[in-house]
Design brief:
The chain is mainly alpha-helical. It folds into 2 domains: 215 residues, Rossmann fold, CATH 3.40.50.620; 82 residues, Orthogonal Bundle (Tyrosyl-Transfer RNA Synthetase). Helices cover 55% and strands 8% of the residues. The protein is built from 14 helices and 5 strands. The strands form 2 sheets. A 3-stranded parallel β-sheet has the order 1-2-3. Strands 4-5 form a two-stranded parallel ribbon. β1, α1 and β2 form a beta-alpha-beta unit. α4 packs parallel to α14 and α11 crosses α13. The longest helix is centred in the C-terminal third of the chain and has 30 residues. The structure holds tryptophan.
Length: 333
């Protein structure tokens, strides 16, 4: 039996942070042995809202690859590949654009929210509006059936499956398998400022490469309960970022429950829960930081990993593209 295929990726717009770790990296680590896994450095998708910033997108190809390797993605088990060097993905993107309407693209909740938050107004880059079709190309080019992503990506997987169904019905045969999004049970990690989403652009993230000092400062500044003025006051757990982080990172969940009860009753200060969280995060990130620094000083190795992975991915995606063109009954030379 061949293993089920996983494809996920990240836009190469900045180093990854704890939100990525909880949202998808942890799942990807867990799947390395049980699945055939591909990780896409999505530099082309990064350009859909960064066409004026190609230097930044190029620079972050290595940064994201370093994050993958530093958290324990093993290139012997997981294939790391570069999107812009996989021509079959671009070809499939063009093909899929004929199987989706502009109205449907505009209705995609993820796209709608991103258009709003980026303030595009009427000036939406065409590539941006169409990136759900390109993401469908990413996923199907590998025939992936499992896609571990953050919660916000679920509508993109739904749209991928709509395109897959249209392709299959046009081909009158099950050419492509549908894909299933795997989202973390706890939902998304909030920003340290209490905003719903941690993001680098929002300035409310803790990156995987944060220094001990940066971690410390970030935890000290975390949003808790503004009404919790004195230690004896009852405090709110809901919306309290420190507890959201303890839920995500503390392995002693029974103790976290006790702390929540104590905090709600009153008598537990912010400093106590912040100290606990800081210790946990320092412990989690210290080995990642160390490994990342070692890898960063060996850039040639990282480039070799990406090159080898891209070569393998090129073969896989090229075959799928041919199968799809053939299955659809396109002209063949
Ligand atoms: N859209 C994803 C993000 O913004 C990145 C991505 C690109 C991706 N291609 C993908 C995710 C394919 C899953 C599958 O993080």
């Amino acid at each position: 039996m061949s293993k089920p295929v996983i494809l996920t990726g990240d836009r190469t717009t900045g180093p990854l942070h704890l939100g990525h770790y909880i949202g998808s990296l942890k799942n990807r680590l867990a799947y390395q042995d049980t699945h055939e896994q591909f990780l896409l450095l999505a530099d082309l998708q990064a350009l859909t809202d960064n066409a004026d910033n190609i230097d930044m997108v190029r620079h972050n190809v290595i940064e994201v690859a370093l994050d993958y390797l530093a958290v324990g993605i093993d290139p012997a088990k997981t294939t790391i590949c570069l999107q812009s060097h996989l021509p079959a993905i671009a070809e499939l993107s063009m093909l899929y654009l004929n199987f989706v309407t502009v109205a449907r693209l505009e209705r995609n909740p993820t796209i709608k929210e991103e258009i709003r938050s980026r303030g595009f107004g009427r000036n939406i880059p065409a590539g941006f509006l169409c990136y759900p079709a390109a993401q469908a190309a990413d996923i199907t080019a590998f025939r992936a059936t499992v896609v571990p992503v953050g919660e916000d990506q679920a509508p993109l997987i739904e749209q991928t499956n709509e395109i897959i169904r249209r392709i299959n019905s046009s081909a009158k045969q099950p050419l492509l398998p549908e894909a299933k999004a795997i989202v973390p049970r706890m939902g998304r990690l909030p920003g340290i400022d209490g905003q719903a989403k941690m993001s680098k652009s929002g300035g409310n993230s803790i990156s995987l490469s944060a220094t001990p000092d940066q971690i410390s400062v970030a935890v000290r500044s975390m949003f808790t309960d503004p009404g919790h003025l004195r230690v004896d006051d009852p405090g709110k757990v809901e919306g309290n970022v420190v507890f959201a982080f303890l839920d995500a990172f503390d392995t002693e969940q029974n103790e976290v429950e006790d702390l929540k009860n104590h905090y709600s009753r009153g008598g537990l200060g912010d400093a106590v829960i912040k100290n606990r969280l800081e210790q946990i995060l320092q412990g989690l990130l210290a080995p990642i930081r160390k490994r990342r620094a070692e890898l960063a000083s060996n850039r040639d190795y990282v480039i070799e990993v990406i090159k080898a992975g891209t070569l393998k991915a090129k073969a896989v995606t090229g075959r799928t593209k041919q199968d799809i063109q053939k299955g659809l009954g396109m002209f063949r030379l």
